[in-house]
């Protein structure tokens, strides 16, 4: 199972919106509603920010949203804040019942 | 608030067995599925396996022959063993809890901070 494809880095200024793409195949993203996104800040445990494509866990800011189309998913962060600077990872459950992750995207808030 | 903490040796020699423990606090360990995930330097996260206290396990096929996962509810710990390690097993290893959606395992809702394990002579 190959890793999902994410851009290595994205950047944006405070207040702007950014989108991070996550591309897989019909055996994972394209065929699964179990797509999730994680935020990993320095020296912190990864944090679940979206699951089942677009559902936010309790306590996660509404500035985080996500969607899926075909074999690709995307994470959008609106109203960028300095605290959003982190690495972001997508994940999908696969048709074999395993999970595959993306390589991660480093978000820099300018 | 559920908290997970990985522990174990940070250095393992090639061909030996890597053994890690994850201690769960702040919530029940029984009744949940627990996973190990790793990230080699500069590479993607890689799901390794999951375990349930009822005995159910499921492994990443690419690692299945070398990996053992278990849970001890009395100690509130899950464990990971990776045998015959090579430099390719050098990674940050995370433990995580699996969450359900519509009755199916879906996402990882709590993670540990991770532990770096280096395989080197």
Keywords:
heterodimer, A: 110 residues, mainly beta, 3-stranded antiparallel beta sheet, 0% helix, globular, B: 121 residues, 7-stranded mixed beta sheet, 4-stranded antiparallel beta sheet
Topology:
The complex is a heterodimer of chains A (110) and B (121).
Chain A: E1 9-12, E2 18-23, E3 35-40, E4 47-50, E5 64-69, E6 72-77, E7 86-93, E8 99-101, E9 105-109
Parallel strand pairs in A: 1-9
Antiparallel strand pairs in A: 2-6, 3-4, 3-7, 5-6, 7-8, 7-9
Chain B: E1 3-7, E2 11-12, E3 18-25, E4 33-39, E5 46-52, E6 57-59, E7 67-72, E8 77-82, E9 91-101, E10 104-111, E11 115-119
Parallel strand pairs in B: 2-11
Antiparallel strand pairs in B: 1-3, 3-8, 4-5, 4-9, 5-6, 7-8, 9-10, 9-11
Verbal overview:
Chain A has 110 residues and is mostly beta strands. Chain A is 0% helix and 44% strand. Chain A contains no helices and nine strands. Chain A has strands at 9-12, 18-23, 35-40, 47-50, 64-69, 72-77, 86-93, 99-101, 105-109. In chain A, strands 1, 3, 4, 7, 8 and 9 form a six-stranded mixed β-sheet that branches. Chain A has a three-stranded antiparallel β-sheet with strand order 2-6-5, with no helix packed on it. The model of chain A has no long low-confidence stretch (mean pLDDT 96). Chain B is mainly beta. Chain B is built from no helices and eleven strands. Chain B has strands at 3-7, 11-12, 18-25, 33-39, 46-52, 57-59, 67-72, 77-82, 91-101, 104-111, 115-119. In chain B, the strands form two sheets. In chain B, strands 2, 4, 5, 6, 9, 10 and 11 form a seven-stranded mixed β-sheet that branches. Chain B is globular. Chain A binds chain B through residues 1, 3-4, 33-34, 36, 38, 43-48, 51-52, 55, 57, 89, 91, 93, 96-104, and chain B through 4, 35, 37, 43-47, 58, 60-62, 94, 96, 99, 101, 104-114.
């Amino acid at each position: 199972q190959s890793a999902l494809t994410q851009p290595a880095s994205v950047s944006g200024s405070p207040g702007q919106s950014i989108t991070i793409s996550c591309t897989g195949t019909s055996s994972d993203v394209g065929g699964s509603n179990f797509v999730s996104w994680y935020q990993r800040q320095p020296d912190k445990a990864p944090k679940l920010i979206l699951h089942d494509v677009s559902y936010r866990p309790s306590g996660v800011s509404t500035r985080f949203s996500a969607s899926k189309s075909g074999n690709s998913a995307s994470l959008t962060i609106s109203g960028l804040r300095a605290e959003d600077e982190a690495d972001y990872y997508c994940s999908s459950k696969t048709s074999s019942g395993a999970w595959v992750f993306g390589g991660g995207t480093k978000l820099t808030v300018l | 608030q559920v908290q997970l903490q990985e522990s174990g040796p940070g250095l393992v020699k090639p061909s030996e067995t890597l053994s890690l423990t994850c201690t769960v606090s702040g919530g029940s360990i029984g009744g949940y599925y627990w996973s190990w995930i790793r990230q080699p330097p500069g590479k993607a996260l890689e799901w390794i396996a999951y375990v349930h206290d009822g005995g159910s396990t499921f492994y990443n096929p690419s690692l299945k022959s070398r990996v053992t996962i278990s849970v001890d509810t009395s100690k509130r710990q899950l464990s990971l063993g990776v045998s015959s390690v090579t430099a390719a097993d050098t990674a940050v290893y995370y433990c995580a809890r699996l969450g359900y959606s519509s009755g199916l395992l879906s996402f990882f809702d709590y993670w540990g901070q991770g532990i770096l394990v280096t395989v080197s002579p």
